[in-house]
Design brief:
Elements: H1 3-15, H2 21-31, H3 41-56, H4 58-70, H5 75-94, H6 104-121, H7 136-174, H8 176-191, H9 196-206, E1 209-211, E2 217-219, H10 221-226, H11 239-256, H12 263-280, H13 284-291, H14 295-314, H15 327-333, H16 343-364, H17 385-395, E3 402-407, E4 411-416, H18 424-429, E5 434-439, E6 442-446, H19 451-464, E7 468-471, E8 477-481, H20 488-491, E9 497-503, E10 507-509, E11 514-519, E12 525-529, E13 535-539, E14 552-554, E15 561-562, E16 567-571, H21 573-579, E17 585-589, E18 595-600, E19 605-606, E20 614-618
Antiparallel strand pairs: 1-2, 3-4, 4-6, 5-6, 7-20, 8-9, 8-19, 9-17, 10-16, 11-12, 11-15, 12-13, 13-17, 14-16, 18-20
Helix pairs in contact: 1-4, 1-9, 2-3, 4-5, 4-6, 5-6, 5-7, 6-7, 8-9, 8-14, 11-12, 11-16, 17-19
């Protein structure tokens, strides 16, 4: 794994512990409700204690969360992290080298150690007479002794390390509005590669110090805000106008500039994305809708983001974030804010600017946002995730191409054997907003808030090890349901189940590997039998047997072994259009009785040889049954 891939994994790992922060913020919000007038002040006290406890134990939560993230969710890593942070706390406290409470930075470092040691030693085999201490138990032994060394080092460097963190925080704070401006730009830019969580962690949990009334030192913009520091929140406040107003306004601009025939579907998709962004602050599904087709517009967006944060800092607005600066955060955190209501008019003004800017840019420069690209369709696909999972897996290069797959809030984070095996176009048609290659086999695929569900469905496919056959598109054009074929024999599936294609280029390729079983004398249809026993018929057009082979050239012969994507036939598309009833080309499985279940990609434009257009699962007893 290269550097960016490692950072990607680390970014996801440090995000996991922050999921608990909205719970803490909600408890503090409810704890500050007026419980006294109704005689239930003890409820408010309990809620405040519970919320503050989460902030108090953040170092432990980060240690365990980072260890789990880096240790492939292995429980051994979590136990190792707990052992490590307990040892570090007690050793450093004994020597009086630091506060008894470890810092979040120390928690993260211990989590990294626990994750690495778990991955490195969890499969260690010892001699039989001491094998009891092998495997996961060996991880705990190694972690315990490593922490003795780590704690000894911390005794020596904890004080200068703490002073260094404070000095760095003071320097960043001394930059004032300019520092906030730079943070705003970097934060948006790093969203592209999913590394903004690392930047957020530095500023949210390590910049600035505050001493509470009880004498406890609190570090970081986020903990300082919830501890009552009136100067905290400057690296978080400016996110609210962006997530609640500006970025949802982009969604409205995309809706307005969509083609009239697609506007209802675009509206359904992007109204939901805008609502999710407004409510929870999740921005990627909207940002990725224009990132790849207009990167220069994303640069403008990043600069405006920085300026927005600078303006909020200049106006002395302070409001913290517990998750992602959406309306939920705004409501539950406002009781601790300063001038926070100014964010509403700022957000409305910014939303109007964004709406008009993006409408102008999309129209003027013909940016192919969803619903505008030539021949595009918008597909409501979320309800069919279990059926699309095999196709998404195929588009990712198949299960043998996947080394590791995790999901964060909006994207799949993968390590793959060969990222060139991934079919970007197929992923886009299957619902992806975009894909980023980080090098070294590290890849991110943005699916929005369904990403975790998609990962779970893909893992089901991988773990079931189904008898599955995957199909590529046999031609360039548009895929349609078999029921739309203008021939009742095919439309009623009397020949077999499958799909059909309307070609826009005169070439046909093999949709899967197999043996050429049949070539009709009039050259208009080719049959392939696969190793699993599937009989696949590709029938060029309707009533094309009457052409007697004119305008058609078959490039294979019966008995040939072919691979998926291999050229089978060339034909004169214009001639076939003129002389045949239809150019609609069915691809059917003629022995469909051996198929247990079917999965189809969206009925959209496809490229010749494109992966992930159809998959079938076979009955176990039939696998290989008909192959010679």
């Amino acid at each position: 794994m290269n550097g960016l891939g490692a950072l990607q994994q680390f970014g996801r790992a440090i995000m996991l512990p922050t999921v608990v922060l909205p719970v803490a913020a909600l408890m503090l919000f409810l704890g500050n409700m007026p419980w006294e007038p109704i005689g239930l002040e003890s409820i408010g006290h309990v809620l405040n204690v519970a919320g503050n406890t989460i902030f108090m134990y953040l170092p432990y939560i980060f240690a365990v969360g980072v260890a789990l993230g880096l240790g492939n969710n292995d429980g051994t890593a979590a136990i190792a992290a707990l052992i490590g942070i307990f040892i570090e706390q007690q050793v450093t406290a004994y020597f009086g080298a630091a506060e008894s409470q470890p810092s979040i930075l120390v928690g993260i470092l211990i989590g990294v150690l626990a994750g690495y040691i778990t991955n490195r030693y969890k499969t260690v085999q010892l001699p039989e007479y001491i094998q009891f201490f092998g495997g996961p138990r060996f991880v705990l032994l190694v972690m315990s002794f490593v922490m003795l060394g780590f704690s000894s080092v911390m005794v020596l460097i904890s004080e200068p390390l703490q002073q260094g963190v404070i000095a760095l925080g003071n320097f960043l704070l001394s930059l004032g509005g300019f520092g906030v401006f730079l943070f705003g730009i970097l934060q948006r830019v790093l969203v592209v590669v999913g590394l903004h969580h690392i930047l957020n962690n530095i500023f949210f949990f390590h910049v600035g110090t505050f001493e509470t009334a009880g004498g406890q030192m609190v570090y970081g913009d986020l903990p300082r805000f919830f501890a009552g520091d009136p100067t905290a929140g400057q690296f978080m406040t400016g996110l609210y106008p962006l997530t609640m107003f500006a970025i949802p306004a982009i969604a409205f601009a995309i809706i307005q500039e969509a083609r009239e025939d697609l506007k209802p579907k675009v509206q359904k998709m992007f109204l939901m994305s805008a609502f999710v962004c407004f409510l929870t602050g999740i921005t990627e599904p909207i940002e990725f809708a224009f990132l790849f087709v207009a990167p220069y517009l994303f640069v403008v967006h990043a600069i405006i983001s920085g300026l927005t944060m600078w303006i909020c800092s200049y106006l002395n607005i302070h409001l913290g974030v517990s998750f992602s600066a959406g309306a939920i955060d705004f409501i539950i955190n406002s009781h601790l804010g300063t001038n926070q209501w100014l964010l509403i008019p700022i957000g409305i003004a910014l939303g109007l600017i964004y709406y008009n800017l993006f409408r102008f840019a999309i129209y003027k420069y013909r940016i192919p946002t969803p619903g505008r690209e030539e021949g595009s369709e918008v597909d409501d696909w979320a309800g069919s995730l279990p059926y699309r999972a095999p196709l998404i897996l195929q588009a990712l290069g198949g299960k043998d191409n996947i080394i590791r797959m995790e999901a964060c809030v909006t994207r799949l984070r993968l390590s793959v054997v060969n990222d060139r095996l991934i079919d970007r176009r197929a992923l886009r048609l299957l619902g992806s907003a975009g894909m980023i290659r980080l090098g070294g086999g590290a890849v991110q695929v943005v699916f929005g808030t369904y990403s975790d569900v998609i990962r779970a469905e893909i893992m089901k496919v991988i773990n079931k090890d189904l008898n599955q056959v995957l199909f590529h598109a046999p031609m360039q054009g548009r895929m349609i349901p078999l029921e739309e074929v203008p021939d009742q024999i095919f439309a009623k599936k009397l020949v077999g189940g499958g799909v059909a294609f309307i070609p826009d280029k005169g070439e046909m390729v093999a949709p899967l590997a197999g043996e050429i079983m049949t070539i009709y004398p009039t050259q208009h249809a080719i049959g392939i039998v696969t190793a699993e026993g599937l009989n696949v018929l590709i029938h060029l057009g309707i009533d094309t047997s009457s052409l007697n082979g004119y305008g058609i050239t078959v490039l294979v012969k019966e008995g040939d072994q072919v691979e998926a994507g291999q050229l089978l036939m060339k034909f004169d598309l214009d001639y076939v259009k003129q002389h045949a009833t239809s150019i609609v080309t069915p691809m059917v499985i003629t022995n469909s009785e051996i198929v247990q279940s079917w999965s189809f990609a969206p009925y959209k434009a496809v490229k010749k040889g494109q992966a992930s257009v159809m998959s079938v699962v076979l009955n176990d007893r039939n696998v290989g049954g008909n192959a010679e």
